[in-house]
Amino acid sequence: MPGRQTVQTPCKINLHLGIHSQLDERGYHRVDSVMAPVALFDTIVIEDAPVLSVTHEPALCVPPQKTTVWKAACLLAEELGVEPAVSITVTARIPEKAGLGGSSADAGATLRALAERWGAGPLDPRVVAVARRVGADVAFFLDPVPSLHLGAGDVLTERFGELALPVALVMPEGEGVSAKAAYDEFDLEPTVPADYDAICEALRASDAAAVRGLLYNNLAPAAKRLQPGCAEVEAWMAEQPEALTAMVTGSGSCVFVICQSLGDARSLAERATQKRGWWSFATLTVGEPQKVC
Ligand SMILES: C[C@](O)(CO)[C@H](O)COP(=O)(O)OP(=O)(O)OC[C@H]1O[C@@H](n2ccc(N)nc2=O)[C@H](O)[C@@H]1O
Ligand SMILES: Nc1ncnc2c1ncn2[C@@H]1O[C@H](COP(=O)(O)OP(=O)(O)OP(=O)(O)O)[C@@H](O)[C@H]1O
Q1: Which of 35, 91, 97 to mutate to test the pocket of ligand 2 (most atoms within 8 A of CB)?
Q2: So what's the ipTM on this one?
Q3: Of the residues 32, 137, 154, 264, which is catalytic?
Q4: Cβ(137) to ligand 1 under 6 A?
Q5: Could you tell me where in the chain the CATH 3.30.230.10 domains are found?
Q6: Which superkingdom is the protein from (predicted)?
Q7: Mutate to test the pocket of ligand 2, among 96, 138, 180 (most ligand atoms within 8 A of CB)
Q8: What is the pLDDT of residue 74?
Q9: Digit-coded pLDDT (tens) for 267-293
Q10: Where are the CATH 3.30.70.890 domain residues in the chain?
């Protein structure tokens, strides 16, 4: 297989994120995570090359060898017994440290494409094992559909049907929140998470109104303590006429708001940028580029 491959990867929001205090053997928290893919895409192009190279556009602050994409390519090549003789170029649109899973999306999409290139299926157990070694969110991006992940938030437990919820994504100014910092902050004031059964039932029934009413994230208070702008964005968004429900995604600092229509999400996002100067993006919770309006 060869030649050039181009893959688009969505980002994610957490519809339910329940962090437990309990840690696994890696020191990772037990996490109940219901994620949905969101139509804001990074693009990854893979081509034959003498040796592995990874380039990000725009450039990252970390060297290529420290990226999730490099780690994913090396670990998968080792696992499948091949040479990682490819050049990988990532064009990133998903903002960093947002809770949108940008670096995990890039790694997951790289694994999907390289698995195909090297003769394995995207959900081959060896590919899934590599994804979990790269990061907790990466397994979701091997097959980005609305789904429940248990374990450390990295074990696929149930897949749901597609649900095209209109969302506005809004980020406060300043530094985002790294996942590690949010988990460390959570440990200072741990809470017991709510149950995820009801939102899973709503997703099984494709009941958008019920899903909206059941959004949950007990990592959000830690994100707001680390980046108070998160709470400011959430409070402002909740007051807007188009907003049905607002919630921090993952470890923040991005807040997502579910609206009745994509038009409403667009007006809200435009107002957030024009009046407050915040980064924003209006879209749908779907994972395939061709399904975006
Ligand atoms: C907050 C979420 O985005 C929710 O989907 C994820 O739990 C974070 O996933 P991620 O960004 O892929 O996180 P990783 O890169 O694997 O881990 C970064 C750091 O977060 C902490 N971490 C992450 C996941 C987890 N279940 N428990 C943890 O304690 C660990 O300190 C880890 O060193
Ligand atoms: N492929 C990549 N894309 C973006 N950042 C990367 C990548 N690989 C490593 N990094 C580094 O990881 C940092 C962001 O990691 P972090 O896990 O906190 O956030 P994220 O992946 O952008 O999304 P999330 O907040 O959902 O976890 C970046 O600032 C960058 O230094």
Answers
A1: 97
A2: 0.96
A3: 137
A4: yes
A5: 5-159
A6: Bacteria
A7: 96
A8: 98
A9: 999 999 999 999 999 999 998 887 765
A10: 166-291
d(CA 144, ligand 2 centre) in Å: 18
Confirm or reject: Cβ of 104 under 6 Å from ligand 1.
yes
Ligand 2 atom 28: the closest Cα is on which residue?
Answer: 96
Mean pLDDT score across all residues of the chain? 97
**Ligand 1 atom closest to the CA of 19, numbered from 1:** 26
CATH architecture of 5-159: 2-Layer Sandwich (3.30)
Specify whether domain 166-291 bears CATH 3.30.70.890: yes
- Per-residue model confidence (pLDDT) at position 293: 52
User: Taking 80 as the threshold, does the pLDDT of residue 2 lie above it?
Assistant: no
Query: What is d(CA 160, CA 148) in angstroms, rounded to the nearest whole number?
Result: 8
The mean pLDDT value for 208-222 works out to 98
